[in-house]
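Reminder to self: keep the SMILES exactly as supplied, no canonicalising. Ligand is nicotinamide-adenine-dinucleotide.
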Amino acid sequence: MTYLENQFGLKDKLAVITGGGGALCGAIAGGFLKAGAKIVLWGHKMSTLEEKKNELIKDGAKSEYIELYEVNLLEEAQINSALEATTASMGHVEILLNGVGGSSVRTALTETDSADFERIINLNLMAGCFLPTKCFASYWIKNNIRGTVLNIASMASFNPLSGAWGYSAAKAAVMNQTVAHARELADFGIRVNAIAPGFFLGKQNRKLLQNEDGTPTTRGQNVLAHTPARRFGNPEELCAAAIFLCSPGASFINGVTLPVDGGYLCHNI
Ligand SMILES: NC(=O)c1ccc[n+]([C@@H]2O[C@H](COP(=O)([O-])OP(=O)(O)OC[C@H]3O[C@@H](n4cnc5c(N)ncnc54)[C@H](O)[C@@H]3O)[C@@H](O)[C@H]2O)c1
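Structure tokens returned for the bound complex:
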């Protein structure tokens, strides 16, 4: 293996990618495969996962490097069963990419439905971070595996996005838990980091950011005006940061949230 493959490759590592049928983590899944990993996509709709697997195979991935599990990440018992089934069929898992999350809801504070707020917190914080990390950490500690977790934070982790009440609260908590989990699990050789994507045209936020004719909406224009790169991100642009943080070369990096945002966070006037 070359120096770069040794440091930054994922050869023969097994990664579970939750929400792996989605726009961003589906793209990262492609990057993981190209870096040599085997992957298991977890999501709550088998048809979405199968569609993603076909796309990855069309892009050159080997079918035997990809497995799929239908699992509701809001249910701790289902996570534990899927983990058991995954290890039984593919061997030990070393990487957990917590990719479930999102929200397309934008409302005034006074119009915000409390049940919706709670649902979005549950999706992004419970399913998207706390529950899978708890289950995987317990499995890794029991089996003496030095695993690594990658969370998906957001620009909302740093500064709330207008109208996105539950989402901003949950993503701030994801960044907080990244630090807390890193500190707690370091004693077991487990690392926990996050990437914070800027604005990407995913399934959920495309309508918020882009009109049907491809021009940016008013919100999209505001985002672009605030992004020094003056464009939205392309999901493939998340791969390098995700692979790096999960690779052996990042062995001394723990508890960080790395923005991949076209400079959104360094905007000034
Ligand atoms: N798109 C962006 O610009 C952007 C920016 C910052 C952060 N993010 C974050 O990146 C992550 C992925 O976003 P995306 O835009 O790719 O979303 P997406 O909707 O395309 O993908 C999410 C996937 O999670 C699955 N899922 C939802 N609920 C589930 C559950 N309970 N159990 C199992 N699977 C479930 C869905 O089926 C879907 O395939 C999210 O955490 C999101 O908040 C996205």
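Points to follow up:
The radius of gyration is 18 Å.
The pocket of nicotinamide-adenine-dinucleotide is lined by residues 19, 21-25, 43-45, 48, 72-74, 99-102, 123, 127-128, 152, 154, 197, 199-200, 202-205 (CB under 6 Å).
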